[in-house]
Design brief:
It contains eleven helices and 19 strands. Strands 1, 2, 8, 9, 10, 11, 17 and 18 form an eight-stranded mixed beta sheet that branches. Strands 6-5-13-14-15-12-16-19 form an eight-stranded mixed beta sheet. It has a three-stranded antiparallel beta sheet with strand order 3-7-4. Strand 10 and strand 11 form a beta hairpin. Helix 8 packs antiparallel against helix 9 and helix 10 packs across helix 11. The two termini are 37 Å apart. The model has no long low-confidence stretch (mean pLDDT 96). 8-demethyl-8-dimethylamino-flavin-adenine-dinucleotide binds next to helix 1 and helix 8.
């Protein structure tokens, strides 16, 4: 088989890249190890920043987002005894949208613009530093396949083979805590997200819809979700989120999913080797506290699709040559913001850290300059920043 761009991975980065390339008249084929159902039902990110919404809307993927997603003006930041609302629209003119990654994924599949081969195994990238790269794989019936392309886009997340095909250096930070993620069939107890710092650990009240809540608790690394029966989850959320504080109440409900997410920052540089370009989690991981993972994947493929379209359609390689540097500017900004939000809000067990965190929280909730800095980063910078 032959195509212009061979894409590894049908997550949001891979499917959106295929969609954007198709709009520019560039052909692509996507190879994905998992089944279509599995990919579409993974519970992951929930917040789209301003420029992600703009881009999805511009390219014809915004109908359901605008009908079923929820626009939020800002978030609440709190610590014991205090809750403050940061209004991003007042501060920066930009809002964010609650719309799950699963929904973005469904919209991309429904658009039908990507040609995807699901359930492939043994994906191996070959000759990526030459003008004739190709991928070999085994399809679901056990037949060997070969896909030749002008360019390979590695959109295969943090466990895929692409990042290992780039002789590069990486920067990494692990954190001494994880998140227990909870999905519950209960109306959210808040109109906008609550990020809570508490001596017991961080908690986040997010949501997926008017009837589904998404909640997170900071837990030690290596935690088994079995250690957290439902009653313990709700009791701890009530404590950390301040049930009873100023009359606010957390309403519990049936929990439908519980899973533990480790927290990591990881940046691979450069994001290109020869004719292999990395995008999304294949190149970088951020801890979820800044809600940046999905948005960075979208920003990467916005840049990459322009670069590849100019290269393959107009023989102009300028944007392809600057892709890695251009993408990494935003990647490092979001890496810093995600690290900063994480270290400001999680309990480290160190009393000096706790005092610095409190001072920082007071500053971002009382100074317009502090609040604007958080708002600008959270609601998101322009694509191409
Ligand atoms: P994805 O979504 O991981 O997609 C990569 C795709 O590549 C496939 N793949 C392969 N395909 C072919 N051959 C191979 N050898 C392959 N190896 C892997 C995989 O099956 C998969 O379909 O990466 P992408 O597209 O870059 O998108 C990035 C986002 O998914 C990611 O940044 C966010 O979801 C991160 N993230 C979260 N971000 C948030 O902002 N808030 C969250 O609550 C949140 N929860 C999460 C998350 C990431 C998670 N992962 C990756 C472990 C929860 C989890 C569990
Ligand atoms: C989510 O809704 O899953 C979510 C929201 C905000 C975050 C992380 C996750 O910072």
């Amino acid at each position: 088989m032959k195509t212009e761009v061979a894409i590894v991975g049908a997550g949001p980065a891979g499917l959106l890249l295929a969609h954007l390339l198709a709009r520019g008249g560039v052909s692509s084929v996507v190879l994905e190890t998992r089944s279509q159902d599995y990919v579409a039902s993974r519970i992951r990110a929930g917040i789209l920043e301003h420029s992600s919404v703009e881009l999805l809307t511009e390219v014809g993927l915004g109908d359901r987002l605008h009908a079923e997603g929820h626009e939020h003006r800002g978030v609440y930041l709190q610590w014991p005894g205090e809750r403050h609302h940061l209004d991003f629209v007042d501060l920066t003119g930009r809002s964010v949208w609650v719309y799950g990654q699963t929904e973005v994924q469904k919209d991309l599949v429904a658009a039908g613009t990507a040609e995807v081969i699901y359930e492939v195994t043994d994906t191996v990238l070959h000759d990526v530093a030459t003008d004739a790269p190709y991928i070999t794989y085994t399809d679901k019936s056990g037949e060997s396949g070969r896909l030749d392309a002008a360019v390979i886009a590695g959109c295969d997340g943090s466990f895929g083979p692409s990042r290992h095909a780039v002789p590069a250096r990486h920067y990494e930070r692990t954190y001494p805590y994880s998140w227990l993620g909870i999905l519950a069939d209960v109306a959210p107890s808040t109109d906008e997200l609550i990020y809570a710092s508490h001596p017991n650990g961080f908690a986040l009240h997010s949501m997926r819809s008017p009837t589904v809540s998404r909640l997170y608790l900071q837990v030690p690394n290596g935690t088994d979700p079995g250690e957290w029966p439902d009653q313990r989850v709700w009791d701890e959320l009530a404590t950390r989120l301040g049930h009873g504080q100023d009359g606010w109440k957390l309403t519990p409900g049936p929990i439908t999913d519980k899973s533990v997410l480790p927290m990591r920052s990881y940046v691979q540089t450069p994001m290109r080797h020869g004719r292999l370009f990395l995008a999304g989690d294949a190149a970088h991981i951020v801890p979820p506290t800044g809600a940046k993972g999905l948005n960075l994947a979208i920003a990467d493929v916005a840049l990459l699709s322009r670069a590849l379209t100019a290269w393959l359609r107009e023989n102009n390689s300028r944007l392809a040559d600057s892709y890695s540097d251009d993408a990494l500017r935003r990647v490092w900004r979001c890496t810093h913001f995600s690290w900063w939000m994480t270290t400001m809000l999680h309990a480290s067990g160190d009393e000096f850290d706790a005092q610095l965190q409190l001072s920082q929280l007071r500053w971002v909730t009382s100074s317009e300059a502090g609040a604007t800095g958080l708002a600008e980063n959270y609601a998101g910078l322009d694509i191409g920043f």
